[in-house]
Please model this.
Amino acid sequence: MFLYVRKSPSDVDPETRLKLLQKMVDNLLDRSLVDKVYVSVSSPASSPFNERDLNKTDEIMEKLKHVTGNTPDMLEYLQSIDHNICLASIDFAGISSRSHLPYNQFLIPWGTAKIVD
Model:
């Protein structure tokens, strides 16, 4: 099981963004049994997954604790698995503002998927 955390772009200073993201990660880890946590430091919910986090040298990502990687790392992980997946969404708009995107962008290529929201 893995988690995906996304923060929208805003004028928040980097230190505050780091604290907010870390709090999101920590809160989800406290409530879940997960193996991996992937984070998008700053991406709109409307952006396609393959266009998120293309800058690998993000200073905030480097400072986050208990994080496996960013969106491209998550997509790479999903391509490497050979079993079905289940996407559980706490806030569907948090993943994408267009509800068909998660299903179309990374669930269909990996076989049967179940969406729980």
About this structure: Residues 92-97, 103-117 have pLDDT under 50 and may be disordered. The beta strands are 2-6, 36-40, 85-88, 113-116. Residues 2-91 form one domain. Residues 8 and 44 are 5 Å apart (CA to CA).
